[in-house]
Amino acid sequence: MAALKKVLIAATVAAIAAFFGHAFLKINRLSLASREMPVKHLKCHYLPNIEYGAEDITVLKDGLAFLSTGLHDYLDMPSFSNEPGKMYVLDLLHPKPTPVELQIKGELDLNSFNPHGISVYTDEADDSIYLFVVNHPQRKSQVEIFRFVWDDTLVHLKTVAHPLLHSVNDIVAVGPEHFYATNDRYFHNAAPQVLTVVLSLPWCNVVYYSPEEVREAAGGIQSANGINISPDKRYIYVSDVLDHEVDVFERLDGEQLVYVKSVAVGRLCQNIEVDHVTGDVWLGCHPDATKLSKFDPEEPPGSEIIKIKSIISDQPVVTLEYGDDGHELMGSTVAVPYEGKLLIGTLFHKALYCSLK
């Protein structure tokens, strides 16, 4: 009996060791650990006033860009300021574009404002501009809806919170109070969440919200991150960061999403922006996620910006547009093209204004 007990203990220890060994290798593979960093620089300079990241950026057709800054205390990612987050606006048609802080009016606790993904919606009926902002006060997830009042004011209209919106990363607005949002994890506790990653459980999703209904619009995603919409409003794009893919869904009547395809990108990509003119898809990506989680200023996390041309076609083309080993820009999360210019935002570092010509 004692001998059998020893065998069982030894077998259990061996099984646990094997599982943790598998988990370590799996996480390293998903994180693209030790991946060779491609370098491709552009003519760029840092945007003034942006010192602690611009996690998401989006731009209107007239060149007015909105920036979400100061994300902190989120998923144990590095951050270097505990100050409340801020929103900025930037006129890309100005000869020297400079971010201007937006003044926020209304009943919103600015002391706990922690902005993440953003989206903008223009109501064609009266040209009103609505800004949707994912907010994480005290590590919660909610969506703030603002009306933009020229030229530097946001009027807070509404806070949206719902059990289905439990871990919102990004958002794409499709109406004045209507949006799709990604949940980037299933569990809030670290241990079970790591288990879902190790076991490749695709339990993340996209949620559709309107004042009339809230429901899952798409599931089966391992780690839903950035989300955006095609210029013709027909397709929704979702970045599955751990699968190193961009998932394409067709948007049908009744706000139903039907999976179409996935495009491999070979990187850990976050936010998605779409060129208003060409329809090209731009993504801010991480070359090696282990350098984010184990931040070392001597070996900083790099940045990669990629573009996908003809994403709906049978032969989409993925190209590297910018690459840096972290000594110019750390932890890129978003890239926004506009008439030969490019804005690049980051998780916690600075933001770049670049020329594509």
Largest sheet: 5 strands, mixed
Give the distance, in angstroms, between the N- and C-terminal Cα atoms: 77 Å
Structural class: mainly beta
Q: Pick out the low-confidence regions.
A: none
Strand order in the sheet with the most strands? 6-10-9-8-7
Strand content: over 45%
The amount of helix comes to 10-25%
What is the average per-residue confidence, as pLDDT, rounded to a whole number? 91
Number of strands: 25
Q: Output the radius of gyration.
A: 21 Å
Shape: globular
> What's the number of helices?
3
- SSE sequence, one letter per element: HEEEEEEEEEEEEHEEEEEEEEHEEEEE
Chart the SSEs and their pairings.
Layout: H1 2-30, E1 43-46, E2 54-59, E3 64-69, E4 86-91, E5 100-101, E6 103-105, E7 115-123, E8 128-135, E9 142-149, E10 153-160, E11 168-175, E12 178-183, H2 190-198, E13 204-209, E14 214-221, E15 224-229, E16 235-240, E17 245-252, E18 256-264, E19 268-274, E20 281-286, H3 290-293, E21 303-309, E22 317-324, E23 332-338, E24 341-346, E25 352-355
Parallel strand pairs: 6-10
Antiparallel strand pairs: 1-25, 2-3, 3-4, 4-5, 7-8, 8-9, 9-10, 11-12, 12-13, 13-14, 15-16, 16-17, 17-18, 19-20, 20-21, 21-22, 23-24, 24-25
Structure description:
The chain has 357 residues and is mainly beta. It has three helices and 25 strands. The chain has helices at 2-30, 190-198, 290-293, and strands at 43-46, 54-59, 64-69, 86-91, 100-101, 103-105, 115-123, 128-135, 142-149, 153-160, 168-175, 178-183, 204-209, 214-221, 224-229, 235-240, 245-252, 256-264, 268-274, 281-286, 303-309, 317-324, 332-338, 341-346, 352-355. The chain has a five-stranded mixed beta sheet with strand order 6-10-9-8-7, with no helix packed on it. Strand 15 (224-229) and strand 16 (235-240) form a beta hairpin. The longest helix is centred in the N-terminal third of the chain and has 29 residues, at 2-30. It starts with a helix and ends with a strand. The model has no long low-confidence stretch (mean pLDDT 91).
